[in-house]
Amino acid sequence: MEVRARAPGKIILSGEHAVVHGSTAVAASIDLHTYVSLTFPTNSDNDDKLWLHLDDMALHFSWPVGRIKEALSEKGSHAPSSPKSCSAETINILAALVEEQNVIPEANITIGAGVTAFLWLYTCIHGYKPAMVVVASELPLGSGLGSSAAFSVSLAAALLALSDSANLDSTQQGWLSFGEKELELVNKWAFEGEKIIHGKPSGIDNTVSTYGNMIKFNSGELTRLKSNTPIKMLITNTNVGRNTKALVAGVSERTVRHPTAMEAVFKAVDSISNEVATIIQSPAHDDIAATEKEDKLEELMEMNQGLLQCMGVSHASIETVLRTTLKYKLASKLTGAGGGGCVLTLLPTQLFQIRKS
Amino acid sequence: MEVRARAPGKIILSGEHAVVHGSTAVAASIDLHTYVSLTFPTNSDNDDKLWLHLDDMALHFSWPVGRIKEALSEKGSHAPSSPKSCSAETINILAALVEEQNVIPEANITIGAGVTAFLWLYTCIHGYKPAMVVVASELPLGSGLGSSAAFSVSLAAALLALSDSANLDSTQQGWLSFGEKELELVNKWAFEGEKIIHGKPSGIDNTVSTYGNMIKFNSGELTRLKSNTPIKMLITNTNVGRNTKALVAGVSERTVRHPTAMEAVFKAVDSISNEVATIIQSPAHDDIAATEKEDKLEELMEMNQGLLQCMGVSHASIETVLRTTLKYKLASKLTGAGGGGCVLTLLPTQLFQIRKS
Fold first, then answer.
1. Residue B230: which of B176, B288, B294, B187 has the closest Cα?
2. Quick one: how far is CA A119 from the chain centroid?
3. Which is it for strands A221-225 and A214-218: parallel, antiparallel or unpaired?
4. What does the pLDDT read at residue B145?
5. Catalytic residue IDs of B
6. Which one of A177, B60, B118, B138 is most buried, by most CB atoms within 10 A?
7. What letter does residue B143 receive in the DSSP assignment?
8. Contacts with A, B 284-343, CB within 8 Å
9. Mean pLDDT of chain B
10. How far apart are alpha carbons A106 and A119 in whole angstroms?
11. Lowest model confidence (mean pLDDT) among A42-51, A179-188, B60-69, B342-351
12. Which spans in A127-242 are helix H?
């Protein structure tokens, strides 16, 4: 029996960094996904292992389920319908299980944490049942596009789809449809996975990946937004790695040094995010309205980028993308932590219409 | 009899554009000057003309003083000790006197307005006396370095030095020293000149040029600052001309579209300007304190530049300078109206010490 699930990555349209200081942020799902396939062996397979194949990285793990059971002993928790946090002690046990496979090159902490999260979600939802899980992703790792959340969400979705906890409607052509209650469960489990991978995630990434479309986030409160017009964004990966924690800390230190100025900057970002959310949700009647929306979004992106530079999180590689797109009169801003990572460029509808004609 | 005067140009250290919306700005005089020489002919010269030589532009004007008297008729106002605004009607009369000389190429409005201001200041302070005035400047025109204010101030100083209104102390080596009262008179006359050239000047430029050092400006109120450590600034002229009025209007339009965000941005700039003023005035005990000051100023410059980008007044040419100086870990910001013009780069003291050693 096999089930496949996919979950999208995300971009931050507005409010990165400032969100940590109480400002509103807006995130959107993107058309790049992580795919998870889950297969239970038939009795004739005679396989008592839990396999995990991370195809993109050519990393392959397999644990005899008895080994996992033995390691977890009483720490295991088979309760698919009640998402539960993994204790620090259990994280250590699971991390040791990952490490003893000797598969991950040179202490790649993120991948190790991802596989640890996998073991937690798997054992919580399916106990010590043998299975084969294959993961493939279109999302680059650690570039701020929410690859870990897409991993956690697609994994939770696949695991829950074959559990008794999710009551899925089978539609035509073999698709399973997740209802509101099931999505909530997916999101909660994915958040538990994110916590293992990131420590203190905001919950933005897994929520966008679970529900798709866009969300507004402020001080822990998430609001799902319904966009009425598709927005075309070009995502440029600078391929410059960065230290998210150091960037976040840098903004906080600057805030300590210049509290009045920085509070005002965060207030400006908050207002920009709320404007972005309003524009996204406003009805678009025709092409003119769509163009107006895009013009407004472009201006707000330019303003947000200036404020991010004021926070000190831009980078030469980001500025290069900004200058290049500016030559074509296109507005861009960094997305995520900055200091490298990805840059968004709004591609106006008119651009495509002109090229088509 | 000849007198020579010089007056410095200026840079805006912090707060350009935002100052129009109520934020504090800080300006400093720079070591580039405009020089004015005023000579009264001896009786034997038999010259009844008022000569004006703008040496840098090789533009030469000469009016028979009778012609000026005739044109101004009752509009003239010989009152050196009471600075007076030039009415729109009188500006037109003086502008016609400038135009009939047929000297200025292709309606260069700024130069024309400068010569008009010269005629107003001259006739107010010296009536219809023949004289020769020679102007030379190290300041590039229209690049935001306050060339017109340096012209107005050096002109007012030279004119007042040979009038009865200024009571100047003659020091050694032929230098005349302007007292506080005389400087105030110079500043007021220069402001009248600026009004003819710019319409509605803020008064920042002529005040910095008159008193030197630095000033803080907020909502029409000027405070002179005493800097305790010299600050070394590299000024890079992008040589990109810009339309100051259009840039100022652009910021105002953006403020109408996004009032909450922009008010917060102006508040951030206000706070930055006040921090800059505090740092400038704080006593510097040693090299370490000087380095700390510079570090703080660099951070504030980076923040201010981000906020200017948020206002939409940066330019590709400015960004090129920013990127270039960033390679050497030097902080830069645009100064003045933006959209081209000049860029400031702080040159830390350490830089010179390292190069010396």
1. B294
2. 19
3. antiparallel
4. 95
5. 205
6. B118
7. S
8. 296, 299-300, 302-312, 314, 316, 319, 322-323, 326
9. 91
10. 21
11. A42-51
12. 147-161, 180-198, 204-211
User: Which of helix, strand or coil describes residue B79?
Assistant: coil
Distance CA A30, CA B267 (A): 35
Give the pair of three-digit tokens for residue B355.
Answer: 């190069």
A316 vs B326: CB contact, 8 Å cut-off? yes
Counts of helices then strands in chain A (DSSP H, E):
11, 12
DSSP type of residue A140: P
Closest by CA to B27, choosing from B215, B154, B198, is B215
Query: Averaged over B201-223, what is the pLDDT?
Result: 92
Put simply, the answer to whether A261 touches B254 (Cβ < 8 Å) is no
What mean pLDDT value characterizes chain A?
91
Q: What is the pLDDT of residue B352?
A: 64
Distance in Å, alpha carbon of B254 to nearest chain A alpha carbon: 9
Tens of pLDDT along B133-165?
A: 999 999 998 888 999 999 999 999 999 999 977
Residue where the block lists tokens 């996998």: A118
Q: What is the DSSP string of B174-231?
A: G-EE--HHHHHHHHHHHHHHHHHHHSS--SHHHHHHHH-SEEEEETTEEEEE--SS--
Which pLDDT tens digit goes with each residue over A225-251?
Answer: 988 777 899 999 999 988 888 999 999
Ranges assigned E (strand) in B92-164: 131-137
- The DSSP-derived string for A228-257 is SS---EEEEE------HHHHHHHHHHHHHH
3-state helix, strand, coil in chain B (%, to 5): 50, 20, 30
Residue from the list B265, B271, B312 with its beta carbon closest to the beta carbon of A268: B265
* Distance separating alpha carbons of residues B325 and A5, to the nearest angstrom: 49
Phi, psi (deg, nearest 5) at residue B236:
-105, 120
Angstrom distance (rounded) from CA A340 to CA A318? 6
- The torsion of the CA quartet B296, B297, B301, B304, rounded to 10 degrees, works out to 70
List, in sequence order, every beta strand (DSSP E) within chain A: 2-14, 25-39, 49-54, 59-64, 131-137, 169-170, 176-177, 214-218, 221-225, 233-237, 332-335, 342-346
What mean pLDDT do residues B216-222 have? 90
For residue B310, list chain A residues with Cβ-Cβ distance below 8 A: 268, 302-307, 310
Query: Mean per-residue pLDDT for B75-83?
Result: 85
Given a contact cutoff of 8 angstroms between Cβ atoms, the answer to whether B62 and B50 are in contact is yes
Predicted local distance difference test score (pLDDT) of residue A85: 95
> How many Å lie between the alpha carbon of B303 and the closest alpha carbon of chain A?
4
| Helix-helix angle A259-281:A244-257, to 10 degrees | 120
> Over the stretch B304-342, which tens digit does the pLDDT of each residue have?
999 999 999 999 999 999 999 999 999 999 999 999 999
Look at residues A324, A329, A271 and name the one whose alpha carbon lies nearest to residue A298. Answer: A329
Asked if B264 lies within 8 A of A268 by C-beta distance, the reply is yes
Q: Which residues in chain A (252-281) have CB-CB distances under 8 A to chain B? A: 254, 257-258, 260-262, 264-265, 267-269, 271-272, 275
First-to-last alpha carbon distance for chain B, in angstroms, is 49
Structure tokens at A30: 């993107």
How large is the ipTM?
A: 0.86
